[in-house]
Design brief:
The chain is an alpha/beta fold. About 45% of the residues lie in helices and about 15% in strands. It has 9 helices and 4 strands, in the order H-E-H-E-H-H-H-H-E-H-E-H-H. A 4-stranded parallel β-sheet has the order 1-2-3-4, with helices on both faces. Helix 2 (about 15-30) links the parallel strand 1 and strand 2 (about 35-40). The longest helix is centred in the N-terminal third of the chain and has 20 residues, at about 50-70.
């Protein structure tokens, strides 16, 4: 994508799987990455999944995934900005957009979103990295985000109240302020 856009180096900004893509790009093409702003992400997400959750998925994958999606929106956002959950519903709870086959393929693929594991390689990410995590995130937990910060050299993490998985949707003003500050810090104007 960078080649097609004629961009040599970039600051990568990614939420959830987008954060995973940013981290993988930082490993695969470190010379192309100026910095990473990672929002609510993780690695090896399926690790430690309790057997009862795996069993529940087998019986009602859509219900379990819907519960995960509900846990990805903060209580404040649900009350004050219900359109965020409506938007998320439209992305993931629509059969022709996120099918059962896509879900199970993601679960089974050893490099898929749930099993993708770069835990041992996080130490090799050298680009300045800022991680934004919501205190109420039930999709990628604060602990999963903290793991990234603890293992990426020099990474900084900021937790935010009344935010879950989607800082850029739940509090766009905060997100824009963080983004401007991060860009200004690592790529100041000449």
């Amino acid at each position: 994508i960078l080649d097609d856009a004629g961009i040599d180096r970039a600051i990568l900004v990614g939420n959830s799987i987008g954060g995973m893509i940013a981290m993988q790009t930082s490993l695969d093409a470190p010379d192309r990455v100026i910095g990473n702003l990672i929002l609510s992400s993780g690695t090896n997400l399926a690790a430690g999944t309790p057997p009862e959750v795996a069993e529940a998925m087998q019986q009602d994958w859509r219900g379990v995934f819907s519960g995960l999606l509900d846990a990805a929106i903060s209580a404040k956002s649900k009350a004050e900005r219900p359109e965020i959950l409506t938007y998320a519903d439209g992305c993931f709870r629509v059969d022709d957009n996120f099918t059962e086959k896509v879900f199970w393929a993601s679960m089974a693929d050893p490099e898929g979103v749930f099993n993708w594991n770069i835990s041992e390689r996080l130490k090799d990410i050298q680009a300045p990295t800022l991680i934004i995590a919501g205190e109420e995130d039930g999709a990628t937990t604060p602990e999963q985000n903290q793991f990234l910060a603890d293992n990426i050299p020099g990474a900084e993490i900021r937790f935010h109240k009344d935010i879950a998985h989607f800082c850029q949707l739940e509090n766009p003003n905060l997100f824009n302020t963080i983004l401007r500050g991060f860009v200004g810090k690592i790529a100041p104007s000449s």
